[in-house]
Amino acid sequence: MDKEIVIFSRERAEEIVNKLRFRYEQNTVIAVVQDIDTKDVLMVGHMNREALIKTLTTGYLHLWSISRNKIWLKGETSGNYQIVVDIKVDCDKDAIVVLVRSLGPICHTGNRTCFYRNIADVVAEPS
């Protein structure tokens, strides 16, 4: 697999997707998004079959929005696209790690990662 960008044909992407277990909310797998260079966890999201196929065929991170019930291209609004370099599958085939080259902050708050707080910081935040 090319370490610069992951792109498969639609047929191959469907073959891969058919091996996974979409058993979470709204028939999704858990997608942990990780920076390819720093290995920092950038975010955790969900992917349904079509979001994963779009990711595999375009090389750009697509996710399934549980709240909006639709696929979204990460960075579509902000321009902070996530280029997929590799994907790892867990032993149960129901969760994946998507290794990306980030073109900007991934978090909607503007932070580079969604995991920018320590647990003690959450207690200190206003409700």
From TrEMBL:
Q: How is the cofactor bound?
A: Binds 1 Mg(2+) ion per subunit.
Q: In which pathway does it act?
A: Amino-acid biosynthesis; L-histidine biosynthesis; L-histidine from 5-phospho-alpha-D-ribose 1-diphosphate: step 3/9
Q: List GO terms (cellular component aspect).
A: cytoplasm
Record-annotated residues binding Mg(2+)? 90, 92, 94
Domain of life of the organism in this record?
A: Archaea
Q: Which GO terms describe its biological process?
A: L-histidine biosynthetic process
* EC code: 3.5.4.19
Carries keyword Transferase? no
Phosphoribosyl-AMP cyclohydrolase domain location: 43-116
Which residues are listed for Zn(2+) binding in this entry? 91, 107, 114
* UniProtKB keywords: Amino-acid biosynthesis, Cytoplasm, Histidine biosynthesis, Hydrolase, Magnesium, Metal-binding, Zinc
Q: What class of enzyme is it?
A: hydrolase
- Catalytic activity, reaction form: 1-(5-phospho-beta-D-ribosyl)-5'-AMP + H2O = 1-(5-phospho-beta-D-ribosyl)-5-[(5-phospho-beta-D-ribosylamino)methylideneamino]imidazole-4-carboxamide
Family, according to the entry, reads as follows: Belongs to the PRA-CH family.
Protein known as? Phosphoribosyl-AMP cyclohydrolase
Recorded source organism is Ignisphaera aggregans
Q: Which gene encodes it?
A: hisI
